[in-house]
Amino acid sequence: MVSDTAPETDRLVGVRLRPGLPADDYRLAAGLEVHVGDLVVVEAGTGEAVGEVRRPPRALPEFRRDRAYPRVLRAAAAAEARAWHERRERERRHAATAQRLARARGFALKVVDVEVHPRGRKVTVYFHAESRVDFRELVRELAREFRARVEMRQLGARDVTRRLDGIGPCGRQLCCSTFLREFAPISVKMAKAQDMPLTDSRLLGNCGRLKCCLLYEFSLYQELRARLPRVNTPCQVACGGGGCMAGKVKALRVLKESVVVGFADGTEAEVPLAQVTWEGRPHVQVDPGRA
Asked: Which of 87, 88, 94, 158 has the fewest other C-beta atoms within 10 Å?
């Protein structure tokens, strides 16, 4: 367990053990300098492992000092770095071989990634297919080709994109390949709550599914919508001097906390929530902190 009295010089660095996996935080000892792209030896569940630095060192936040992080032990030696690169190259060759054999058997699948385990006795083939595939004969053929035990794992569209990585429409690296550890359910309801056109292709991420970031502000929109009247609700608008005008809610401006009110003479006006009452009830008071 990491002590609460961890020295100020303790830092965290992001390391991934192989391409296709997200970078995890490791504790970097004082005096050890590493840079993005360097290969280092880190603590792993089975002992030690070589990984690549993907995020630069940063100070260990005070609120995380009670967490136990695996450590970066040292920079990788030349022989360790060479073995790491050779395994990556072997995985690329295996992926090409697996795709070629699958195509030769007429399987409609895409080999996304191949992982060769440290001792080389086991090879995991990650693939994507739109339907279930009976790949038992393919597994036997791959086992003969690789001279190892072969395991096939089918990935969904989101997991494929996570492993392939990429840049999102926002211009940043994909959330799923950086900090997201699990995929939360994303629904059309979230897009509707944020007033997004449901026919807009920009709602789709690189994976072809609804973007994960639709979830980020969904709770805020829910909170704000709960304070607003529904569309077509009869309402009254304070006009100053104690007078009011009757109308009907035509549209909502959720983030502005205002509504568009249509009046009997055919005119419309955008009115702050503080000036609107509806269904005979006083309006919900606006939080001064949001004003």
From this structure: 88
